[in-house]
Design a protein that fits this description.
The complex is a heterotrimer of chains A (about 130), B (about 425) and C (about 500). Chain A has helices at about 35-45, 80-90, and strands at about 1-10, 15-25, 25-30, 50, 55-60, 65-70, 75, 90-95, 100-105, 115. By secondary structure, chain A is α+β, with helices and mostly antiparallel strands. Chain A folds into 2 domains: about 1-50, no CATH class; about 55-115, CPE0013-like (CPE0013-like fold). In chain A, the strands form 3 sheets. In chain A, strands 8-5-6-10-9 form a 5-stranded mixed sheet. In chain A, strand 5 and strand 6 (about 65-70) form a beta hairpin. The radius of gyration of chain A is 21 Å and the shape is elongated. Chain B contains 9 helices and 30 strands. Chain B has helices at about 15-25, 55-60, 65-75, 140-150, 165-175, 195-200, 260-265, 305-320, 395-400, and strands spanning about 1-10, 30-35, 50-55, 60-65, 80-85, 85-90, 95-100, 105-115, 120, 135-140, 150-155, 155-160, 180-185, 210, 215-220, 225-230, 245, 250-255, 255-260, 290-295, 330-335, 335-340, 345, 350-355, 360, 365-370, 375-380, 380-385, 390-395, 405-410. Chain B is globular and about 60 Å long. The mean pLDDT of chain B is about 95. Chain C has helices spanning about 15-20, 60-80, 95-110, 120-130, 150-160, 205-210, 280-295, 345-365, 390-400, 415-420, 430-435, 450-460, and strands spanning about 5-10, 30, 50, 85, 90-95, 120, 135-140, 145, 165, 170-175, 180-185, 190-200, 220-230, 240, 255, 265, 270, 305-315, 325-330, 335-340, 405, 410-415, 480. In chain C, the strands form 4 sheets. In chain C, strands 5, 6, 7, 13, 14, 15, 16, 17 and 18 form a 9-stranded mixed sheet that branches. Chain C starts with a strand and ends in a 7-residue tail after the last strand. Classes of the chains: A alpha+beta (about 130), B alpha/beta (about 425), C alpha+beta (about 500). The interface of A and B includes residues 8, 54, 55, 69 and 117 of A. Strand 11 of chain B pairs antiparallel with strand 23 of chain C, so a sheet runs across the interface.
């Protein structure tokens, strides 16, 4: 099954349009790059496109209601919304430290979700209006 | 009124202010004080939850909050005094700062002041977008803070105006949070965002990009109901009968950034109309001795790495002996160059410049001329306004002896 | 309470002026306002000018109420503390022909008993207004500026603390004449009142038609404005007006300084079909800028920070000249219905005098006994940003919320926002905050303060984010939460 796609290289601002033809998991044709970096990028993009994912998770009793998180590695493109769904389901209790593994092996991807911020516990604040 | 005396006071605790303050300490300043109007440090970074920060600087791609934390930890380690939720009310002509917070008013005197106030977003009216004035119109940065910090969803059916990086990042963010992103509208025939963001924010999610289009009307009785876009010709004039109505409930405006310099203006610091920030010399010193500027309030930077690099230099200069010159060589932006920093040179030495071009060019050549002598020629593979150009130039006695200005320009064959 | 002596429909400057006058007496007064706050219609969308009376034809009601109202403003301002400045006005002649028009205008003014009018030569004008281009000008010292929305709020809040009940977000759906009173049906329930005062502005005909066949038409005429950055405020000292255009009976472009230091350009004048089409148009925005640059050549570029528009309630169509006098009268067919029709410029100036007139009419129908404990509420003390360092420090000592600045452009404090949201009318929109304490009116247009105002609304007033509105009942600002509290 031949699959052809035009991939815009993102390694530098030139943004070469690279034509890639794949068959099963094989690159049959790769053309249009102006430098070597484009080859590696286009190959990965055609055979196994992945993206770094960042999002937020609900925090209970924190100074802020959300903690920002990232995937420990780039996530396969076709699993992005599945991973996001899992992220939206959970919450965490303050305090939370940055770099904490909040979800292990999210959606069976072998990728973890890690906090990128520290959130302190909410102190009792004076909310009276005087 | 509380009186404070310091060696270096930094107005703004975002990435520029933090880097400058840390550097000032590292270069020997004793009392270094950061004033920030928010309850947090890091400025805009805590809401920039996406990655891509610090690649040049550290080799690692960090998220905004992680990048900020790196500098915040350094600032704390080095005993920099931090005053949060503190607003600078005034910087007067005698370099005195009046600031206020819940504990009271402060009069702050310092040997050096570093301005790092950052920038604000262009509003709908800066672009004079016609139509009703309903709810549901947000600038991209505000929408970003609502979604990422405050757990608030601005709307459900969104159109983004402006295809710079901020607009693109927000298009993806909204999509991730369950909104329908109906399109990104861009006046120019190209997006000013990084190709990476066009692919990973628009192409990945089939979000249409309307290049060469402008928004001609916002409609909605109380909340946004629909917008009208229209195609433009190459002179940016609307093409008749190309109107397209898009039903939506939210409009995100990513129209550009304006360096925040009201404090600077009120202190009679000279402003460069082209950058929107103070005129500075190669030490980032403004027209007022002892007052320096860095970060987005000096000029809008593309990425935080270069911004931090420059801010660190400012921190150093704020402590070391700076140029006391009365005579300056003026740096003029010539053909093809929109703006350039520094705008003046006060000493003969190797100077690092940053500049922006006016429009995209393929294989342009950058020239610097002094009188009728060419003092630099640099061939570039490409140039576009969204990517700042850096270059170094040896300003020698020869150059300054007979001329009071140099010109930077582009040559396109 | 469901039964009233007087029900006022509309809480703009006219309705609120009447409410305030009536609040001095021992009667039950209700004000029905379909918007989420007072001052939602033309009252917040004009130039904020206290007119001298030179623009209205002799012997008209417009002239009479303008001149009477003008005289009442200073003492009202002293009482209630809303801002007022007698900056004066220059009516500009660009050429010799226009100087004749100036002379005519001066005569009308003098006949209307307006004092201090003087025609000045170019050099004399330049001394006071060095940036204005002109051949000659008519100097009108008795013209002033105020913040019309603050004046409206002052009147309404004063009426409210004297027991007038303001029903916000309450739209009158229909009115029936009962034996001794009116049965008023609204979206928030049914009410009864002996007298109905129709101060509903652009909706005045709609209200009349609930009870009788109206003998008039309303011709909506939109006026657009541009607001300039405070950095422009030294460009002019007084109001600068073009010679009025006789044909359509509107004043022509003005350059009007505001109390707070901005400059207003406008209004335009455009007859429209849709009564509620308050949009800003590209044509008018460009037109206003071009006209302004003719009068003020050194106007810097990129000075526009905001734009708005209002709809004039005109009783005469463009074909007939667009000018009609006020109609302020009890309906002949429906006794007890008091109509205020066609209250366009100089409506703001005329409002206090019109209210006295309505009071007269009502006093003939209901016995008015003075309240012994009539309260005066000063709506505005100095802004934090206007106070001396000593005053500021003292306030912060007493209440630290005066030390936290949440609006960077205008230096507005948390305490001021809380005070604004604590208003006696119960108005809790973002605009309610904006009009009372100015947060959101700066050059960044809410870019910094919105997040903080929203947090204050949530924390102190327990408003849910999805219920936060911009200015009107259905102008919700947010969709909801990105993450809800997850119950285990």
């Amino acid at each position: 099954m031949l699959n052809e796609q035009e991939i815009t290289c993102i390694v530098c601002p030139v943004g070469c349009k690279i034509l890639v033809r794949t068959s099963k998991n094989h690159i049959e044709l790769l053309d249009g790059n102006k430098c070597k970096k484009g080859i590696e990028y286009a190959r990965n993009e055609a055979l196994d496109p992945r993206r770094m994912l960042t999002s937020t998770i609900f925090v209970k009793n924190g100074e802020w209601p959300l903690v920002s998180v990232k995937s420990s590695q780039p996530v396969p493109k076709d699993k992005i919304f599945l991973v996001l769904k899992e992220i939206k389901k959970i919450s965490v209790n303050a305090p939370v430290k940055s770099g904490y593994k909040i979800i292990n092996n999210v959606a069976n991807t072998n990728i973890n979700i890690i906090t990128t911020k520290s959130i302190r516990k909410l102190k009792k604040r004076d909310k009276s209006i005087n | 009124m509380n009186n404070i005396e310091a060696d270096v006071v930094v107005v703004g605790g975002g990435p520029a202010g933090l880097a400058a303050a840390v550097s000032a300490k590292e270069n020997g300043a004793d009392q270094v004080l950061i004033l920030d109007r928010n309850s947090w440090l890091g400025g805009i970074l805590p809401q920039c939850i996406h990655d891509g920060f610090g690649v040049e600087e550290t080799g690692k791609s960090m998220t905004g909050p992680e990048y900020a934390d790196k500098y915040i930890e350094l600032a704390e380690q080095k005993n920099i005094i931090i005053m949060n939720e503190t607003m600078v009310l005034k910087l007067n002509k005698n370099k005195e700062i009046t600031a206020v917070n819940k504990k009271g008013l402060y009069k702050i005197k310092s040997k050096a002041i570093i301005l790092a106030m950052g920038c604000r977003e262009k509003t709908r009216w800066n672009a004079m977008i016609p139509g009703n004035r309903p709810s549901g119109i947000f600038t991209a940065g505000v929408a970003q803070s609502l979604i990422n910090l405050y757990n608030i969803m601005p709307g459900k059916n969104v159109v983004v105006v402006g295809s710079g990086d901020v607009g693109l990042i927000m298009a993806r963010r909204l999509k991730f949070e369950g909104a329908h992103v109906l399109g990104v509208v861009e006046v120019l025939p190209y997006s000013s965002g990084l190709p990476r963001n066009i692919v990973q924010c628009l192409d990945d999610y089939n979000i249409p990009l309307f290049l060469n289009h402008t928004i001609t009307c916002i409609e909605g009785k109380e909340r946004v109901e629909q917008i009208t876009i229209c195609q433009l010709d190459k002179n940016l004039n609307p093409i008749v009968n190309t109107q397209k109505k898009i039903k939506c409930d939210t409009l995100l405006l990513s129209l550009g950034l304006i360096p925040e310099n009201e404090l600077s203006k009120n202190a009679d610091i000279q402003i460069d109309e082209l950058t929107g920030g103070p005129i500075v010399d190669q030490n980032f010193q403004t027209s007022k001795g002892g007052i320096f500027a860095c970060g987005n309030c000096l000029q809008v930077y593309d990425n935080v790495d270069l911004l931090s690099k420059d801010a660190k230099r400012v921190g150093k200069y704020s402590v070391k002996k700076t140029i006391q010159s009365k005579k300056f060589i003026i740096v003029k932006p010539g053909k093809g160059i929109r703006n350039i920093v520094p705008q003046r040179i006060g000493k003969t030495e190797n100077v690092h410049f940053t500049c922006r071009v006016e429009k995209p060019y393929e294989t342009p050549t950058l020239h610097v001329i002094s009188g009728n002598k060419q003092i630099l020629k640099k061939k570039l593979k490409w140039a576009n306004p969204a990517n700042m150009i850096e270059f170094n130039l040896d300003i020698s006695e020869d150059i300054v002896r007979f001329n009071d200005s140099i010109e930077v320009l582009l040559d396109v064959k | 309470m469901k039964n009233f002596h007087v029900a006022i429909i509309g809480s703009g400057v006219v309705g609120s002026s009447i409410a305030w006058e009536l609040s001095k007496y021992k009667i039950n007064v209700a004000v029905f306002e379909m918007g989420s706050d007072v001052t939602c219609g033309a009252t917040k969308a004009n130039s904020g000018v206290i007119h001298s009376g030179i623009n209205s034809p002799n012997n008209s009601l417009k002239a009479k109420f303008c001149i009477d109202g003008n005289k009442m403003f200073q003492s009202l301002s002293n009482k209630m503390n809303f801002p007022l400045k007698w900056v004066g006005k220059f009516v500009i002649a660009k050429n010799q022909d226009e100087i004749k028009k100036l002379e005519r205008l001066k005569k009308i003014g003098e006949k209307n008993k307006v004092t201090g009018l003087e025609i000045l030569e170019k050099s004399e004008v330049s001394q006071k207004e060095p940036n204005i281009k002109c051949t000659a000008a008519l100097w009108v010292p008795k013209a002033g500026i105020t913040l019309p929305y603050l004046f409206n709020i002052a009147l309404a809040e004063n009426a409210a603390i004297n027991n007038v009940i303001f029903f916000l977000e309450t739209e009158v759906k229909d009115i029936k004449k009962g034996k001794n009173n009116f049965l008023i049906n609204t979206n928030k329930g049914k009410f009864q009142s002996k007298i109905v005062v129709n101060a509903s502005g652009i909706n005045c005909r709609k209200i009349v038609s609930m009870l009788e066949d109206p003998d008039f038409q309303v011709y909506p005429c939109r006026g657009e404005y541009l607001v300039l950055d405070k950095n422009c405020n030294s460009l002019v000292n007084s109001m600068i007006y073009q010679i009025p255009n006789d044909e359509i009976g509107v004043l022509g472009i003005h350059i009007t300084p505001t109390i707070e230091g901005n400059i207003l350009l406008g209004p335009s004048a455009e007859f429209i079909n849709d009564f509620y089409d308050k949009r800003n148009t590209k044509e008018m925005m460009n037109n206003l800028l071009t006209q302004a640059k003719e009068l003020l050549p050194i106007l810097p570029p990129n000075s526009i920070i905001n734009a708005y528009s209002g709809i004039r309630c005109k009783l005469s169509p463009p074909e007939l000249g667009g000018w009609a006098d006020y109609r302020i009268e009890e309906s002949k067919n429906t006794p007890g219905l008091i109509n205020l029709l066609g209250i366009e410029s100089p409506g703001l100036t005329a409002a206090p005098a019109i209210a006295k007139e309505i009071l007269k009419i009502i006093s003939k129908k209901i016995k008015l006994i003075n309240k012994p404990h009539f309260k005066i509420h000063k709506i505005q003390n100095k802004r934090f940003s206007e106070m001396s360092a000593k005053e500021q420090s003292k306030l912060i000592d007493k209440n630290p919320r005066w030390g936290r600045i949440i609006c960077r452009c205008e230096n507005i404090t948390e305490a001021e926002v809380i005070n604004a949201l604590s208003n006696p009318l119960g108005a809790k929109t973002l605009s309610a905050v904006k009009y009372r304490c100015r947060a959101g009116m700066g050059r960044c247009q809410g870019g910094f303060c919105t997040q903080h105002v929203v947090r204050i609304m949530e924390e102190f007033f327990k408003i849910e984010v999805k219920d936060i509105k911009l200015k009107s009942p259905k102008s919700n600002v947010f969709y909801g939460r990105t993450r809800e509290m997850i119950d285990e």
